[in-house]
Structures are given as C-alpha cells and as structure tokens.
Amino acid sequence: MKKISLYVSYHNQCDLIKTNYFQPIQVGTAYSKPLYPSELNDAIGDNISLKNKSFCELTAQYWAWKNDLTSEYIGFCHYRRHFIFNPDNTTENNIYGVTPYDQMDQNYLKDVGYSDQDLEKFLDNIDVVAPEKWDVRNHYAKNNLDQYKNGPNLYIEDYYTCLDILRAKYPEYEESITSYNVSTDGYYTNMFIMKRDIFVHYSAWLFDILFELEKKLNLDNRDIQEYRVFGYISEWLLGIYLTQLRRDKKLNIVECRRTFVNNANTGNYQLTSQQPLAITNTTSTSQLDKIKKNYKKIVPIVTAFNENYAITGAALIQSIIENSDPTCFYDIYIIEGALSDTTKFNFHFMFRRLENFSLNIINVDHFFANKNLNLHAHFSKETYYRILIPTILPQYDKVVYLDADMVVNKDIQHLFDTDIGNNSIAAVKDYVMAGFIKFKIMCRDVCGGLTTEEYLKQYLGMKNPHNYAQAGVLIFNTKKFRKTGVDQDILQDMCKASYWFLDQDLLNKHLEGDIYYLDTQWNVLHGNGNVDSFYKKLPLPIMEDYFKARKDPWIIHFAGEQKPWFNPTADFASIFFYYLRNTPWKNNRTPTSYVPSNTEHRVEHKVEQIYINPNFTVREILKPFVNRFLPLGTKRRQLMYKLYIMARKKL
Q: Does the residue 432 lie in any domain?
C-alpha cells in the first residue's frame, strides 16, 4: 500500500469526501475560520495562508511542501474539479477540456473512480500525472502566450516579468519557455500528482520564482480578481515545468482527464469523520421543516444585482415586505457578485425585526470568473445569475425570480401560487418584442443585423417569435430543471455566441413550448418615456392588454434607461420612492447605480445629470439623438439603419 496524498482544495461549504488518499484541505483559512475544525487547513504549521488572496490554491501546495514529509505521492485537485481515474469513463469533454457533471453522487464517484483503489491502480509505474492538455484555440487564443494576453483579469506585463525572473534563475528552461508559449495546448487548473522528489523540486522551483515576482509587482490598485495574479500565473509555470520535465525520457508522465461539478454544495456528500457546519447563506431543509410548522406556506424569492443596483434592490425588497401576509414565510435570496460589506449590512438591517422573513445573500461571482459572457450595452453579468437558481436552491421545487429594477404592489405569494403545470418556467409575453417585430427593428450587428423576426426565427430557432417571453419576472420549476438539465445547457451555450438580450434570449431559445404565460399585470414595464411613441403603436390586442395592466400593475418593471432614481419624473417613479422611504437608501437621490466608478466620469448640467461611459461606442453615444429624430417604427429609421449596415459592410 502506497502513501498517497491527493489534496482536495476548498474554500467554502461544499460536498467533500475524505478517504485515506483523498485529503480535503481548506485554503485561505487565515481570513476565516475552519469549516471542518478537525480537518486540514492551510493556516497550521509552516504556511502562507495569508497570501491566499493572491496565491489562491497554491497556499495548500506550500503547506504540503513544508508539512507533508512522508507521502510517496503528492498531488492536488479541487472541490469541484477531480481527475478521472476510471479507464472505462467515455463521457465527452466540453469545449473547456473538462467533463461536466451536475453533482456528486454515487454514480459520479463510480464514474470518475473516486476511490483509493482506483487511484492506487492508476498510479502504478507513473512518475507524474498531469492534467490533460487543453487546446486554447477553443477559447479563441492563438497559443498559450496569447491565452494569457486575452485573460480578462490578467496583465501580460506580469507574465513577461515572471519569465525574466525564470530565465535569470533557471536559464536551462529557455527552450521550454519558448516551446510552451507558442504551443496551442496547455496544462491548466493547477492539478497534478507527482512522486515526492519531483514534487519537492517543483515546489522549490515554483515558489522561488513567485516570491521574487511578488517583490516586483504592485497590487495596490487591483481588484479582487486581478489580485489573484500568482495563482493565475502558476498555471503557465506548471506548463513550462512539465514541458521541461518531459525532456527526461526516463520519466513516465501521463495526462489525465478532469471533471467539473456544477453543483458542488448539495449537502449529500460530506466528510466521513464528521458533519459539516450548517450551510451558510441558504435556508437549510431542517430549518424549512421547522418554519412549515408555524406558517401556512413558504415563499422563496430570488433577485440578483450588484452594487450599482442596491438602491432599486432595496425598493424591491421593501415592496415585498409591505405587501406581505404575516401568516406566510418569505425566504428571500440576493444573488450577487460584488456587494460591499456596508450594503450587505444595510440589507440585513432591513430584516432585523421581521419574524416571517429571512434574507440570504449568496455570492456566485467565482462561477463566472473565467467565462466570456459576451456582455454589451447596459447588461451586466448579474443578468446570468438567475440561471443558477435550480442549482443553488436544491431545497425548493418552485422559486419566484424578480429583476432588481422592480417594485411589487401585490402579495407575491399569489404569483408563487400560480399553477404552471409541468412547464419549466412561467413568464409574461414580451410585448416590447412584439413591437420590435411589428416595426422590423434590427438586432445587434454581431448577431447579423437581422430584423427582430428573422433574429428570433433564424438566430434563436424559435418557431413562433410571438411567444417570446420577458424574463424579468419568472416562476422557476426548479425540480424539472434539475431533472432535464436544461439550465446546464444554457450555461454552456451562453459563452458560445453573442445574443441580443443575453440570457433572456437563451431562456426563450431553450424553453420555447415549455413556458406558462402569466397575466401582464405581473410584469408591467413603466414605458421608459416611450408610452405615446411606442406602446400606443403596438398591435391592438397587445396595446389594449398593456394599458389595462398599467391601471393596476401588480409588478412595475423600470426597464430601460429612464430609471426613477435617475429621472424622478419617469412614469411610476413616485411609487418607487414610496417604497424606498423605509429603507436605508431613502435619502439617496443620486443613486449608487449612477455614481461614477473608475470607468465612468460625470457631466453636470443645470437640470439633470448625464453619466457618460468613455468606453461607449459612437453608436451608443448617438442613440438618444437617433431615438429623438428617427423614432422607433418609422420608415425613415428603417431606411437609415439599412444604409448604416451597407456602409459598415463596405468598410
């Protein structure tokens, strides 16, 4: 029996299985507390746990290098990425070079060979296990060097500085540096298994380079993702090291496929030695069982936003509170990626005296950290977060989702009670899209510059474009999503192509014929200043339905540029401020969402404030003037757009 330690790095509450060989180790423990107090963590013994924010999972590698003095084999994987040791596994990889799985269960463990026996058998006569090479051209890069250049949170100057250090300290690696940089195949994700002597050599080599690089880089002005530079750059260094190692023909180096588990926090797979601490940021099943005894029903509600939309998220949540039923329990979730501690405190403050409410704030930013989401215009990555609802709320079979730029004027339990049958979602038909179809509005250039109807039919593949749904208000049949896995299809699709209305398009593309249509009163757009010029010109039945709903809107949706906190004269703005009055944001007349950030500057005017993003395209800057002099639906606008497309093609 070999002495093998395959360390499984984790940093949050997740599904883990401990065996003799698979050793979970918590990273970044110096900044938090041990999630499993009796298990390994990177803050004990000789450690660099305090460097975790910039070194990421390398703090576990450093710990093993300095503290594991007996293992014959030492390696690393992650809580949601594992090696596949089962030789009979034939599941195909995705474009990112990993085999996706929904969650860890008995079938998963058997499928990947997650056992001591499989691991020991796999390592027979092997010196190094490397991650299977991934072709970076799948991510539109030319080679490994270009992959670093294109990294959304990476600075190529850091890599060049690192290579200079490497050349100076280890000049014998020059050929391997060149060879790896120009190669289209790379070793990524910082996963490997090495015989002890090789591991010790590699760790000494790696940290010698990184600690020197740390002295030369100034990280003061970097955001949380950019700050992870040493963790990122080590993936390229591993590739260079393995390239050099392969020059020794006596070594047996094999590549091994990897998995990616989408839902790594089901609560079903725990450490064999103890129960984990209570799952943070979600209402557990046991808590729900207690709540059910005291209330007639539990209503789970999800919204998603970042710091820019905190003010409207506050108005939305306050409107839910003020229209609630004390005999019901409302389980509210904010899915976020960048809320400040102050903002989180303010939201929790709103719930301090509410017995029939719970607030759960869940950060999912890491899930999208390395994904190319093809964002444009005013859309932010938070728009995609709703797709994660079936995964992050496994305790519910049905969930209500609401966009942040809304207020609710009716008890949301009535929306939750809607019988949507066996449909995957419920939503209101998008009457704006119906207008776009009527007026032959052209979609984005990158999507082909098609008319709306052509875009919906040809690009999205919809059979009936008039069934297009507005995704601001949704009822998720999460049970069906988990059964069909369509949410995983959408998550994979979102990075493959550009879309006009992003995840809303994807929901319509993948769920046509599987949507229950709600009463329009559940999603009444405020008009965005275009009530007379656009909404009154909608097809007659749709127009009549919209204006009837405006008389008694159960949910008001402030979609478009004319947000009430930006333009207090916008339709229904007074209702927005009515709900805002009892929140910590009641005095914020100049809202968070339009306070200039490091990518914006502000131009003051006598009557109103206009915020201009210097990264806007000419098309975006001219948009307000085009809308004024070439209104939507007019023949002259259609003619000018066709001329614009023709001109672009000639350039």
A: yes
